[in-house]
Amino acid sequence: MRRCRLEFRDAMEKVGLVCARSQLAYSMAEARAAVDEIGLPCVIRPGFTMGGSGIAYNLQEFEEICARGLAMSLNSEILIEESIAGWKEFELEVIRDKNDNVIIVCSIENFDPMGVHTGVPRTTFAKWLTTGVLLRTATRGVYRTTATTLDRVRRAYARSR
Which of 27, 28, 78, 140 is most buried, by the most CB atoms less than 10 A from its CB? Predict the structure, then answer.
C-alpha cells in the first residue's frame, strides 16, 4: 500500500499536479531525516498493518508514532507524509470514452479546508479559486495515468493554499 501511494504521487507529479511530500523510512534515523525535509505536522503510516498510524504535531509525538509504527509494521517500513490539513479540496465528476475524450460533468469546491469536518460541508458547484483550464488539464492527465476506458469515477483534488 505504501508503494502504491508513492506510485500514485509519482503519476500525479508526472501530469503536473502538486502532491504532499512523502518518504519511506526503515529506521528512526531515516524517519528523522524525512521529517527534517517534510516538516510537521506529518502523517505516519506503517507498512503492511492496520494499526499504528498517526499524525505528529511535534517531535515527541513524531518519535513515539514512528517507533510504534516501525515495531508494528511487518516489513519495518513507515511512510511519512506531509499533512494536507488546510489544503483546498476539489471533487470532479468525470467521464472518459474509448476515444480519450474527457468531460467534467460537475465540479465541487469545498469551502472548508481539508481537515475540517463539520458534518455539513459547505460546498459550491462553481469553481471559485481555480481555472477551468487547470482542472481540464489535470483531469485529462489523471485519467490517462490512472483510469480505464469507458469508466466514470470520482476524483478528489487538493491544492495547497
Answer: 78
CA max distance for the chain: 53
Cα separation, 161 vs 84, in Å, equals 10
What is the rounded distance in angstroms from the CA atom of residue 44 to the CA atom of residue 132?
A: 34
Q: Which three cell numbers stand for residue 33?
A: 531525516
Report the distance separating Cα 139 and Cα 123, nearest Å: 20
Q: Is the dihedral of CA 138, 20, 3, 23 positive or negative?
A: positive
Q: In whole angstroms, what is the distance from residue 67 CA to residue 25 CA?
A: 11
Q: Is the pLDDT assigned to residue 63 strictly greater than 70?
A: yes
Which amino acid would we find at residue 67?
A
CA distance 23 to 109: 29
Q: Cα(45)–Cα(34) distance, rounded to whole angstroms? A: 13
Tens-place pLDDT, residues 104-141: 777 777 777 776 666 666 776 665 555 566 666 777 77
CA 98 to chain centre: 28
Residue 25: in which H helix or E strand, if any? strand 22-25
Compute the distance between CA of residue 81 and CA of residue 71 in angstroms, rounded to an integer.
Answer: 18
Collapsing DSSP to helix, strand or coil, 118 comes out as coil
